[in-house]
Each structure stands twice: as C-alpha cells, then as structure tokens.
Write a structure and sequence with these properties.
The structure holds 2 protein chains of 2 kinds.
Chain A: E1 7-18, E2 21-33, E3 38-42, H1 49-57, E4 65-74, E5 77-78, H2 84-91, E6 94-97, H3 101-104, H4 111-123, H5 128-136, H6 138-154, H7 160-165, H8 173-185, E7 191-195, H9 203-219, E8 223-228, H10 231-237, E9 240-245, E10 248-254, H11 255-260, H12 265-273, H13 310-314, E11 320-321, E12 327-328
Parallel strand pairs in A: 3-8, 3-9, 6-7, 7-8
Antiparallel strand pairs in A: 1-2, 1-4, 4-5, 9-10, 10-12, 11-12
Helix pairs in contact in A: 4-5, 4-6, 6-8, 8-9
Chain B: E1 5-20, E2 30-45, E3 49-53, H1 60-67, E4 75-80, E5 83-84, H2 90-99, E6 100-103, H3 107-110, H4 117-128, H5 133-146, H6 163-175, E7 181-185, H7 193-210, E8 213-218, H8 221-227, E9 230-235, E10 238-244, H9 245-250, H10 255-262, H11 269-274, H12 306-310, E11 317-320, E12 323-325, E13 333-334, H13 338-346
Parallel strand pairs in B: 3-8, 3-9, 6-7, 7-8
Antiparallel strand pairs in B: 1-2, 1-4, 4-5, 9-10, 10-12, 11-12, 11-13
Classes of the chains: A alpha/beta, B alpha/beta.
Chain lengths: 334, 350
C-alpha cells in the first residue's frame, strides 16, 4: 500500500458550452482522497457533484464540457497530460457504481452476457480484435461466466448461476444495484466511485446495500468517493465529507464533526433543514440554486446567505483552515 | 368520539387481476391476483395528520387512491362524515371529490405541461364553482399567495418552475376547492432537503389556516415523525402496526417497524440513540402477486415462529391505548371496531 493520495484534485474548473452561453458549473474544486479513505460529496441537485465525479472517471461528454482550469492527479499521474490508451488502463482501477440501477443495465441482454462481456473486454486488453476472438471462444466465455458467478456469490447473492440467465427487468432494484456493485468490483479496483447508489432504493434495502458497500470497501482496503444528497448516508459511510454548493466546495471536514458543528452558513442551513427524529423547527434555506449562466459574483452563496457582508459580493472566499482537517470557504472565519 | 371521525374504512381491499401470456403459443395464460390493499380498517380523525408508511410495493399509494376514490375498492366499506361512500356515483361522488382532494406523487408529471399555472389552478374552479372570470382570477391570485408563490407565476408553464415551486402549485390546486381532507402522496420525496423543509413548513401553515386533515403517504420516516399524529405501517397491503406517532417511534413492537426504524440514516448521535439497534432484513419486499393468506412478513422476519408459516395472518392486537400490532408474538386483546362488527353482519362488499 502506498501512502500517497489516490486522487488529488486541485482547483478544478469545468465549463459547459451551450447555445445560451458558457455555464460555469464547477469552479475551484479541490479535494484529496487518501488510500483506504472514503470521501463523501454532499450537496443538492445541480451543485456539480456528479460532474466532478464524471470528470474523474473520464465519462463526461467532452464537447459540451470543457476543463477550464486545474489538474486531476489519479494514482500519482496527471489525468490531463496522459494519452487515451494510458487513461483507459488507469480507468480500470476505478470501479463505478451509477446512480440509477434501472437505466444502467442494458435491458436487451441477460445479466450473464453483460458481465461476461465486460470481463472479456477487460481481458482482451481492450482491443476489439482480440475481444471478438475471445468472445467466440467457448472456453473463454465459460471461464468468464464462472468468474461472474463467483463475483456475484461474494456479494451474497444466492444461486448466482440462475441470476446470470435473468434479464435486468426481472430483478428488483436492490438486486440490480448489487449486480452493478459486482461489476464495479470485478477489476480489483483501488478506487470506488459511487454516484448516489441508494437513492432509488427503499430504506431497508438501502441499509443492506450500504452495509455491503462498506464491507467490500473495508475488505479490499479501497478508497471511495461517495456522492449523495443524504447527509445521514454520508454520516454512515464517509470518513471525510465535502459539502458542495453551486459548483464550489464550501466546507470540508471529518463527517461526524462537520454534521455536529457545521461552520458554513449553507451547511448549517442544510443540517437544520433535515427533519430530525428529535423534532424541532425546520428552517430550510430561502431562494434558489444559482444560475450557472451568470453566477453571483463573489461567494456563490451570498444571495441566500443570512450573514452576508459587503465583502461576500466582491470576492470569493478561499478555503480557510479551522482546526484539524476542517476547511471552510466563508469570510466569517477570516 | 365517534363524530370526530372524518373518514373511516372497514376491511377495505383492492385486488388487481392479471392475465399474463408468455409468448403466442402459451395458451393458458398465467392468472395472478395482486392484493394491493388487504383488509385495511382505520379511521381518520378530523384535524389530524395521519401517515401511511411502507416501502414501495406495500400498497400505500393504492390505499391513497382508494381513499380519494380514484379507484373503487374490491370489497370493504368506507364512511365519510358518517355517511357511507363506498359505492357513491354521480353527484355524490363529485361532491366527495370536492371535499377530499389528492396531491399526486410527482409534481412534475401531475401538472399538464401545456397549460399555464393559471389554467391549472382555475380548472377545479371552472368545474365546481360558477363564477365570473374576474372572480376566478382573483381566486387564483389568492391561491398563489397562500402557497407563497409570486402572482407573476400565473402566466408561466410548469416547465419554467423548480421542483419545489411545482409542488406548491400542486398543493394550491388541491386547496382550490377548500377540501376538508387532503391526501398527500409522497409530498417531499422528489425534493431537495432545503426545499423539503420549506414545503413541510407550508403544509403545517396551510393546515392551521384551512383546518385541514392530512393523510400523508410517504416512505420517509423522519418526515412522519415531524408531521404525523398517528401512523399506520403497511407491508404487502396490510397494516402491520398502527398507533400514535410517539408510540410507534419509541416503542415499536412489530419486527418490520423495528427494522424500518433502524434503517433510517440519521444525522446526529442523539438521534442514533433513539433508534432500535441494527436489524438487517434478508431479501426484499416480495412480489404482492399470489400471496398466501399467512402473515405477510413471515419470509423476512428475523424471529419467526412455526405459527407464522402455518396459520392465517394474525389480527391487529391492541398492546396499549391506541397502539395495534399484527404479529403472532404479541398477545393481547384483538382490535375491535364497533363499526367493523356492524359491517361484518351485513356481509362484506357487493
């Protein structure tokens, strides 16, 4: 195990070029993921959390999107300076669990075909010629099928052989999510990126799926990037949490401390908006998520902030250190 | 006591019958019965927040549709303000729908995208209340004001609104006819937390203003804890636990309720201590098709008995005042509704 950080993102800025103009979706995002550490990104819809993760995976459609600034260092290598081939190989070490299990599995093929295809593609060294050759080889396919069954068995799926014959339609949401988790874990990844994997699931299924993800991450000593809008889930799973608002990171810190004692006005508003079992008055946050076409100048949260000062409208606050591992982007703490 | 009951149901059930052919040469189609709601007996009191919780597939939305008379029950009785409404038609049904309104699950798909907010809000008024255009416009303005939306929104279309604003419009539409009972199907699950808090505040405010009774259908237990006076926990079409909100959250008795509570992802340490310890349920909610008449939860129950497999589904049993549980492990007095007994004598359904 190397001690250097698995992912370092420095001052990342992503623009989307549309007919209406340039949308500055992500601005100045910096984060690090150490080995064996699970990082959470929390934020509301449209805060740029999924865009950041997709950037990391290289699955962001690049003509509309454009990297304006910053660098991404993955496993000690700069992502933007490397070639396509090298990047594809590096990508194999990342497992991705997508948001919606229903739309992420091709409904036309049975689970077995989807899984063996992926395994064989990986084994062929991602070359189409070799892949097609190997796909026709019955022995290879059977081997891949056995491996797929083994992967599913590791996720406590009873009778994986029958599951391989089934179509995604025949499975429940939790089961589909487990198949996707198996696929994410198939390449012995060092990093798992999960984009709201449990949003579409029921509470009890969510609990089980989270327990499973947690167990696998712990077992393989993997690093994780967990994207969610549910602070409770982040609390359960993540060591450190980054709170995003309007494409910027507004606060970061160890999850427990961050939620017990939020510093940034946005995080405070978010924590106070969550209905609690202990009751109490819900606050909510006035106003709307910012428009990316012409985002508010200075701190992007200032139009909704209760404790804004003149400075907030002029200059965006930098990340200010507030104790061990605690960073907050707010002029209040200057 | 009895006169404060707004809406009562006795043994309300809804089954869907389905024939399924697998391929063209499959001559004898598979027949299955989906009992979405089975024998639900409950009463909703005036001015209370009654919550129905359960996972997807537990029949909670179907129950909401039955209460709003979007669907008609297969068997059972319903009483609204002391009058039987099980099979009402025509004018009586129209009147019922005026008194009982429903806010549907997804505000984005329950508002017609081609209509302006004004025409969406004035449609119920056109149907029910003869008034001049001027009056109607004034009424729409009042409605928008009641849900804290700017009056300029009347000319906009739903696509120009955010999720929270759409939910507000859906609420305004339901309130246009001043109903007494409002059935809210997942009012906050499509929304972000900061917006969700605002909608919950608004609901409380509207309830006080218009003296409404809410039936809240949701899977979010924390919202239930904050909003509801009484809670019914549903599993595969049956109510497995029914009681006051404090009783359900502090002293849950049914294993399913306990598992559901332990699965809440909580934010603070203090909340964590309030929940029962970790219970991981095996498997997922089974398909509601062709379920045997045993306890619906038997296949996933962490401490099941032989009796659960072999006997019929247990009755709701009263464990304390106004707290009923449907489980063989619990012993006590059977749930008894005077009205239910009367209904049984007449025979169930048509």
């Amino acid at each position: 195990m190397r001690t250097e950080a698995i992912v370092v993102i420095r001052d990342l800025g992503i623009d989307f070029e549309t007919i209406d103009g340039v949308l500055r979706v992500v601005q100045g995002v910096s984060l690090t993921i150490g080995p064996g550490e699970v990082i959470g990104i929390v934020g509301e819809t449209g805060c740029g959390k999924s865009v950041t993760a997709k950037m990391l995976l290289g699955i962001l459609p690049m003509p509309p999107a454009r990297v304006r600034s910053g660098e991404v260092i993955l496993f000690g290598r700069n992502l933007f300076s490397m070639g396509y081939r090298e990047r594809e190989i590096l990508k194999q070490q990342i497992g991705y669990i997508p948001q919606d299990p229903t739309s992420s599995l091709n409904p036309v093929f049975p689970i077995g075909t989807l899984m063996t295809d992926m395994l064989i593609w990986r084994r062929s060294g991602q070359r189409m010629r070799e892949y097609l050759w190997m796909r026709r080889d019955r022995k290879r396919v059977e081997e891949a099928e056995a491996d797929a069954a083994e992967l599913l068995r590791k996720l406590y799926i009873p009778d994986p052989r029958t599951l391989l014959r089934k179509y995604p339609m025949e499975l429940s949401g939790g089961m589909k999510q487990r198949v996707l988790l198996a696929m994410a874990l198939s390449g012995d990844p060092r990093l798992i990126v999960a984009d709201e994997p449990t949003t579409a699931l029921d509470a009890t299924t969510q609990k089980r799926t989270l327990a499973l993800i947690q167990e696998k991450i712990h077992e393989g000593h993997l690093a994780g990037l967990y994207i969610t809008h549910n602070l409770g889930v982040a609390r359960l799973l993540c060591h450190r949490t980054y709170v995003m608002y309007g494409g910027t990171v507004v606060e970061s810190g160890p999850t427990g401390i961050l939620l017990e004692n939020p510093l940034h006005p946005y995080t405070r508003g978010l924590v106070q908006s969550i209905p609690k079992l202990t009751g109490g008055v819900l606050r909510g946050i006035e106003g709307q998520v910012p428009d990316y076409l012409n985002p508010p100048a200075g701190c992007r949260f200032h139009p909704r902030c209760e404790s804004r000062a003149a400075k907030c409208e002029e200059e965006a606050p930098p990340m200010l250190c507030q104790g061990k591992d605690r960073w907050v982007a707010c002029w209040q703490y200057d | 006591m009895a006169d404060s009951i707004l809406l009562g149901t006795q043994d309300l059930s809804k089954s869907f019958f389905r024939k399924q052919r697998k391929g063209i040469f499959h001559f004898r189609a598979d027949r299955s019965v989906i009992e979405a709601v089975k024998g639900v007996t409950l009463e909703i009191r005036r001015n209370e927040n009654f919550a129905v919780v359960g996972e997807s597939g537990s029949g909670k939305t179907t129950l909401g549709f039955l209460l709003a008379k979007v669907l008609s029950p297969t068997c059972g009785r319903m009483e609204f303000e002391g009058k039987e409404v099980t099979h009402i038609q025509g004018g009586a049904l129209k009147d019922y729908r005026r008194r009982v309104q429903m806010v549907f699950q997804d505000p984005a798909s329950s508002l017609n995208p081609y209509h302006t907010i004004e025409s969406i809000l004035s449609l119920p008024l056109r149907i029910y209340e003869p008034m001049t255009r001027k009056e109607r416009e004034r009424k729409v303005g009042e409605l928008l004001e009641a849900v804290h939306l700017p009056v300029e929104f009347r000319k906009r279309k739903p696509s120009a609104l955010s999720g929270g604003q759409k939910q507000r419009v859906a609420l305004a539409r339901a309130l246009a006819l001043r109903p007494v009972l409002c059935i809210l199907d997942e009012p906050t699950s499509a929304l972000d937390v900061s917006v969700q808090a605002k909608i919950l505040q608004l609901l409380q405010e509207l309830k006080d203003k218009y003296a409404l009774t809410f039936v809240l259908i949701t899977h979010d237990l924390v919202v239930v804890r904050n909003m509801a006076d009484r809670v019914a926990v549903m599993y595969l079409g049956r109510i497995v636990e029914l009681g006051r909100s404090e009783a359900i959250f502090e002293r849950p008795r049914h294993p399913y309720t306990q598992a559901l509570l332990s699965a809440i992802p909580v934010v603070t340490e203090e909340e964590k201590r309030m929940l029962p310890s970790d219970i991981l349920l095996e498997g997922e909610i089974p398909s509601p098709a062709n379920q045997p008449p045993t306890c619906p939860f038997r296949s996933r129950c962490p401490d099941r008995l032989d009796r659960c497999e072999n006997s019929l589904c247990p009755d709701l049993i009263m464990v304390e005042n106004e707290h009923w549980v449907r489980c063989w492990r619990i012993e006590g007095k059977r749930k008894f509704f005077p009205a239910e007994a009367a209904g049984r004598k007449e025979g169930d359904g048509p």
